[in-house]
Amino acid sequence: xxxYLPIAEVSVNAFLLLGLGGLVGILSGMFGVxxxxxxxxxxxxxxxxxxxxxxxxxxxxxxxxxxxxLAHLKRKTVDFRMGTVLLIGGLVxxxxxxxxxxxxxxxxxxxxxxxxxxxxxxxxxxxxxxVESLNAIRRMGKPGAAPKRKKHNWIHAxxxxxxxxTSGLYISVIPPLIVGLLVGVLAAIMGVxxxxxxxxxxxxxxxxxxxxxxxxxLFQIIFVxxxxxxxxxxxxxxxxxxxxxxxxxxxxxxAQIGTRIGVRLKAEQLRILLALIVLGVCGKLAFDxxxxxxxxxxxxxAGGH
Length: 305
Fold this sequence. Notes:
Blueprint: E1 2-5, E2 10-13, H1 14-31, H2 36-45, H3 50-75, H4 80-106, H5 110-140, H6 153-156, E3 161-164, E4 169-172, H7 174-190, H8 195-205, H9 210-235, H10 241-264, H11 267-291, H12 293-304
Antiparallel strand pairs: 1-2, 3-4
Helix pairs in contact: 1-3, 1-10, 2-3, 3-9, 3-10, 4-7, 4-9, 5-11, 7-8, 7-9, 8-9
């Protein structure tokens, strides 16, 4: 069943969009990521213009993340205080990112920037997560291995400390604010919730327990992506509501399924699986950037008819 998307100016199969939304919703529930890092490139692959994919995906992430968050609230695995500190940084970052996006769109460079950002960030994050997860699995096999929680000396030396009871931490608010700021900028430019950066940062940089990280990440993602969607809709006019609704329906259903799957897997297994998915998407995007210029022009021509 083909449906015409007015803002994107293309026709797409409605069931394909529902399926993509469901798939990304499952990942959102399992890993505590908004799923945008996967959905936005998938939208590129089916012919949605990057500017529209980024702005509309931010809208869909709000719904799938909210659905995932509800499941975590029942288990009391959300650190609201940490989530609020991350959120403050995230809102500032999102406001900056939307302005950068608008400026680049005005000079016609936004499509290239979005794709390059994806290749660079997914490549770095995926590789780091993969190596760290392998090390964690190896350590599990050694009964005498010491737990690695004491590498955060420089963070403990920073001023502005605050108690985060749910996470069992007493650290400076500066690192979470910076993590939130970076994630906010990426949410605006790349159409992502930023969970694929925030989750590893919360585990390895802030030293938060993995069981609290997922729910806290989703809490922050909801507000930052909601704010980003509003900014894009009023500044760049690139939010396609027909596309957003189809992705949203699939995403909400998928997030509930994903949360149930995530509970049954060990933290290390979840992280290595997420790392492999991130690297796979990065490889496909890099391949398309290097090998596909002619097809991109023909896509543009098809959209103009």
